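Handout, section B. The chain below has 322 residues.
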Amino acid sequence: MSDALDIALRLIAVFVVFLVLPLVIGQTEHKVMAHMQGRLGPMYAGGFHGWAQLVADGVKFAQKEDIVPAGADRRIFQLAPAVALLPYLLVLVAIPIGPHNAVGQALDAGIFFVLAVMGVGVLGSLMAGWASANKFSLLGALRTAAQLLAYELPMLLAAASVAMAAGTLSLPGIVAAFHWWWVPWQIVGGVVFFTAGLAELQRPPFDMPVADSEIIFGAYTEYTGLRFALFLLAEYAGIVVLCALTSVLFLGGWHGPFGADGLGWLWTLLKTALLAFGVIWLRVTYPRLREDQLQKLAWTGLIPLALAQIALTGVVKVVISS
């Protein structure tokens, strides 16, 4: 009975994180963008500092009419938002937030699990684009798939470098093996991993599949109301997962200057929050890439850097072992 209770408590904790942190990221994005770009609208709802903006957005989406195009594949159209969102819930189960088994479920091949499940989310976009009976939606979905193919490889190679350094595929094992002197020679892999993750999430400046100036809103053009809100929630959940993974793999996770045992979870959350702020900062700072620039960056920039990182890791491992 105690084992069942422990599993239930872990799942409840993961579910609470899944429900809360993406909303916090969404609210933070409203405020950061309002300050950086002088957007006054998000600062008014509810009075002080626009505290009710997130509530206002939720009410707005709930009130919108739920429209399904006449020519759409109704079942696939309705199922797509859930397929886009749920993989991030599964990934959170395997991400450690602190020492002493502070993880939903420790997996021996956790790094492969999280990367494989994150790639499933693209099926939601493909389903949405195909089922919408809209050529612009289909084009956006195909761009999403092409972007995933281009950026999945450097992301996997960068993660493999850390796994080589730690000598394990387990995420808690990688964090436990972390040393601060890893940061200088793994930083390139960290940048590659983070950049590729942003591209997979279609976050600016890699948001070509949803470029409003070309294809309206990509695979999600025909979506309204709460189904559209679920796609937005999937984006913010993806930010949480990407930033948490980057902090765990490349920034030491729960390791901090002091109190790693007692405050390990706090260090993980602080690193995740700092990276999430960087994601928002990038959105308001850089213009989006063209489609050809986006593909060129992956194949001629990130992949060679990731391969060089793996080679460097191999050399360092040989030197250390000798």
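Note. The mean pLDDT is 88. Compare this with the example in section A.
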